Amino acid sequence: MIWVVLATAVNIYVFRSFGINYTFIFEIDQNYKLIHHQLFRVGMILLTIWCICLTFSTVLIAIDVTTPAKLQICTIMLLVTFMLICFCPLHCFYLRTRKQIGKTLWHILISPFGLVRFRHFFLADVLTSMITPLQMLGVIYCFYFGP
Fold first, then answer.
1. Dist. CA 6–CA 11, nearest whole Å
2. pTM summary value
């Protein structure tokens, strides 16, 4: 998730540098668009949260905590924090942009019966390229919540 946000910020920086009208190509609202500085800021906030959880996990390993439940708590807190940020109904972390992404994902899910435009096709292509991480979600679930 962090990588996607930072890579999107780099792409928007390149698009703006070369004068590519990405807002027209991806049908983004002209009155409300994110620029690369805003995406870099969100990516750095997420990276900071991730680094704090990684540091805390390393400290737990260094003090020889061998109970799996105590070692898993950092990762679970990280996942819960990221999910809260994604689904937060408050006007923080660019609520309108998160709603746009949600609508786009909904159109991808109902794509044979609904609207299909370039941004839907592009995001669906990105998601199908991430098949290995999506397949690992089952393994992650079994690791953390299994017997």
1. 9
2. 0.76
Q: Can you list the pairs that 95-104 forms with residues at least 24 positions away whose Cβ atoms lie under 8 Å?
A: 96/29, 96/32, 97/32, 97/34, 100/28, 100/29
What is the CA 76 to chain-centroid distance, rounded? 16
Q: Give the type of residue at 126.
A: V
The domain tally of the chain equals: 1
| 115 to 10, 25, 61, 93, 125: CA distances (angstroms) | 28, 16, 49, 27, 16
pLDDT in tens, the chain (147 residues): 788 889 989 999 999 999 998 888 888 877 777 788 999 999 999 999 999 988 988 888 888 766 766 777 888 888 888 889 888 888 888 888 888 889 999 999 998 888 889 989 988 998 888 888 888 888 888 877 776
Domain span at 90: 2-145
d(Cα 74, Cα 95) in Å, to the nearest integer?
Answer: 26
Query: Please, are residues 22 and 15 in contact by the beta-carbon 8 Å criterion?
Result: yes
